[in-house]
Structures are given as structure tokens and as C-alpha cells.
Amino acid sequence: MNDIFATLESEARSYSRTWPATFDRALGSWLYDEDGKPYLDFFAGAGALNYGHNNPILKRKLLEYIERDGVHHGLDQATVAKREFLETVDEKLLKPRGLDYKIQFPGPTGTNSVESALKLARKITGRESIISFTNAFHGMTLGSLSVTGNSMKRGGAGIPLVHATPMPYDNYFDGQVDDFLYFERLLEDSGSGLNEPAAVIVETLQGEGGINNSRAEWLRNLADLCRRHDLLLIVDDVQMGCGRTGPFFSFEEAGIVPDIVCLSKSIGAYGSPLAITLIKSEHDVWEPGEHNGTFRGNNPAFVTGAEALRQYWSDDTLEKSTLAKGHRVGQVLETITSKYDGTMAKGRGLARGLGFEAPELAGKVSKAAFDRGMILETSGPESEVVKIMPPLTLTDDELEQGLQILTDSVEAAMA
């Protein structure tokens, strides 16, 4: 790799260390380095590229918008692009699901959505404490870090992270303990020392935490507990929303309706920065300008985001395809785990993982895959899980090619 990155770029860079190539082009499920070598992308921008790189349908809409001098930057001014995005979200996502949400544009990325959700929950309830979960990841700004579990990321804050209390995520005790027994006892016991919470924030499937999937029953019980104790329920769907688990929202399978939903990554559809916060109408108590930001309305992302909803969410074709491809990934993972001790298949939809009892093996698999022309990330508190998150739009042939590389890479790492 060109020395300019090591010379001038901050040591904070990470992915460029994992995949030591200089990429130049990308299309669909493929990245190409500057020498033209192809890499099959089973990372998809950490979930920001659910519709693939430079999706031609979305690209055409974007180019048309730019060529006609459509508004590029407009703060939170009313624009044609924003109007069409709002109308399409309402038509394709909210009304078909009977959801009554207001839409806030909090800033350009996922942590902005989380920060706005936490801030709003505190304003609504007048309480400070937030309940989060073990191995959660919600972002890298201070509020989001306070409800994140990873000790290395939390340590980067440099100051105490307060007003948040972690609780055990689903199966944290390997199914040996009633998950909410401890949580509810603390809420009901005036001597527990637990500050009365404003809200609970949860990922229905933890991506960065290690592809930890929660059961639909667990989510329903959590929603019920929140209702009974007057807590707001925030679902962070930044990485697992936009169809990653099959349905557009990852919580649909459980049949729950969160008070607040955080969305980013693929909501803009093309890899452009965009985040939205969905707020139940009765909870939209913001004063004008009370939460704002210079880049809280990315008009080009409105254009591509709206077109993606029209193209891919007017029916259930993509949802069914994602579930079928996810099932195929699951079959291959089960074959691998049956062959090698100390491995575990994880996840649902096209958010899948292969866990290793020996954490270093996940990194070896990732490296072996890169050497074979595929991009694979690791996740989990010890980077012990190989994370499988290709674009939802990949072809069956690309899926099979990737699964073969994965199988070969595991074999090489375990040799």
C-alpha cells in the first residue's frame, strides 16, 4: 500500500490495515484495487451498502439530480428531494406497517440518530438514566459510547461515561437464567440503587458485538417490561435495518413497535451519509432548533434513498430473497461448525457470523479470505466472530463463490 497513508493519515485508521489494498473502483458486490484485482465484498460498508456499490438504478437518479443542479446542501430547509423522500418513506414503510412515526433528520450518521434518541427520551421523561445491554454498540460519540459495551471503545472517551446501566442481553447467561428476572427486580426494588431509567436502547441483532441475535420472545418481553414500567423503548436499527435481517425493520419479526427507531447506513441507499430518527407522534416534543446540525439533511441521499424504497420495497421480493440467501449461508455455516470443534454459527437474514472459541482464528480466516479475493470483517469483544454481511442484491452465483472462499479460508486457518 502507498506509504502516504502511513505517513499522513492518523493511526486511528483500521480497515485499511485489515485489507492492505488501495481500492479504486466498485460495482455491485465487487471492489477493485488500483491494479484491477477484484475482491468480492462480504462487508458492504458495515451495512451501508445493502444495495451494492454504485447501484446503476440509484446512480442514474443521482446523476440526473446533480446534472439539473438540484439542491445539494440545505440544512433542514424544505426541498423537493426531502419532500419526495418523506412521501416515499410514508408510502412504502410507515403506512403499510401501520406505523405512526414523525421523521427527524438528526445529522449525517448513525451516532447522530442515537444521540438524538437519548436526548429526546430524557426530555420526554425528565429522567437521566438509560438502560443498555452487554456487548452493545451504538456509536463513537459520548452519549452513544455511554450505552456501548466494548471496553476499548469506551476507554477512548477519556472521561467517565455516566447515566447508563448495562443489563444482560438475550442468552448472555447461555439460557441458564431468566433474562429479565434481575432487571425487573432492580426496577421494583427501592433499595436497588438503580436510578429510574428514561429508556431502554437495544439492537435486535448485535452486529459489532459479535452477531448476537435476540429471540422474538425476548424482544416482546422487553417491550412489555418497558410498557409496565413506563420506559421508552429505543431500537437501534442503524446496521440491522433497511432489510439486513429480511424485513425492512429488524424488529418486525417480533411484532413490537418501538417508541423511537434509529436508522442510518443504508437508509441513504448509495453509501452517502444520512440518518433519520423515527419518533412516535406523541413523543415529538422538540422545540424548533433544539436539536440540529449543519449536515442534517443530505439531499442527494434523499434522492437515492427514496429511489431505493420505490425499487426494492414496493413488494416483498427483496425480503424473500434476503431470507433465502441467509438460509443458504446458514446451511454452509452449519456444515463448517459440524466439521470443526470450537466454532459456532450465528445470526439471521444476511447478518451472519462464524464464532471461534480461539479468537485469533477469526482474524486468520479474514486474512485468508482477503488473500483469496474476498472482504470479510471480524466482530465481537475479542474479534472472535467472522462477520458475513454481503450486499442484499448479490447474485446467487456471487453468494456461492463467497461461501466457497469462506469454506476454503476456514480450512486454511484451521490447518
UniProtKB/TrEMBL annotation:
Name of the top EC class for this enzyme: transferase
Pfam families: Aminotran_3
EC identifiers of the protein: 2.6.1.76
Molecular-function GO terms, alphabetical: diaminobutyrate-2-oxoglutarate transaminase activity; diaminobutyrate-pyruvate transaminase activity; pyridoxal phosphate binding
Tagged with keyword Transferase: yes
Cofactor requirement: pyridoxal 5'-phosphate
Pathway(s) per entry: Amine and polyamine biosynthesis; ectoine biosynthesis; L-ectoine from L-aspartate 4-semialdehyde: step 1/3
Key words of the record: Aminotransferase, Pyridoxal phosphate, Transferase
Signal peptide region: none
GO biological-process terms attached to the record: ectoine biosynthetic process
Similarity comment: Belongs to the class-III pyridoxal-phosphate-dependent aminotransferase family.
UniProt cross-references to PANTHER family, sorted A to Z: DIAMINOBUTYRATE--2-OXOGLUTARATE AMINOTRANSFERASE, DIAMINOBUTYRATE--2-OXOGLUTARATE TRANSAMINASE
Protein name as annotated: Diaminobutyrate--2-oxoglutarate transaminase
